[in-house]
Design brief:
The radius of gyration is 14 Å and the shape is globular. Helix content is 39%, strand content 23%. The two termini are 19 Å apart. By secondary structure, it is of the alpha/beta class. Helix 5 links the parallel strand 3 and strand 4. The strands form two sheets. The chain has a two-stranded parallel sheet with strand order 1-2. Strands 3-4 form a two-stranded parallel sheet.
Length: 106
């Protein structure tokens, strides 16, 4: 993951991980909790859509505010990736500042 790469290579850039899941089972939960406690540049926001409902644009930007110069990495189902990219592009984020990774078939 990009988080692990940054930690392993001592890259101390501000990172916000907005982790949304349909269940309370978040893969890599323990690692991300440990790292966010250890490294001040890493903030992890957990969002259980089963309990809180679908993640909406306003909530995304509340949990992970837009900042000029940020890079955005989106990973998830193709539909979710497309929706988040649309939110970002409509909010003025440049395509060059967005990377994605679509997970198919889950």
């Amino acid at each position: 993951s990009m988080v692990k790469f940054a930690i392993d290579h001592n890259i101390k850039i501000d990172m916000i991980v907005l982790y949304a899941s349909k269940t309370d089972d978040f893969p890599f939960y323990d690692e991300l909790c440990e790292w966010s406690a250890r490294y001040s540049f890493l903030n992890v926001e957990w969002y259980d859509t089963k309990l809180k409902g679908r993640l909406k644009k306003k909530m995304i930007f509340t949990l992970a505010p837009l900042k000029k110069g940020y890079l955005y990495y989106i990973a998830g189902s193709p539909a979710m990736v497309q929706n988040i990219e649309t939110f970002l592009f409509d909010s003025g984020v440049s395509e060059k500042d967005v990377m994605d990774d679509e997970f198919r078939g889950y």
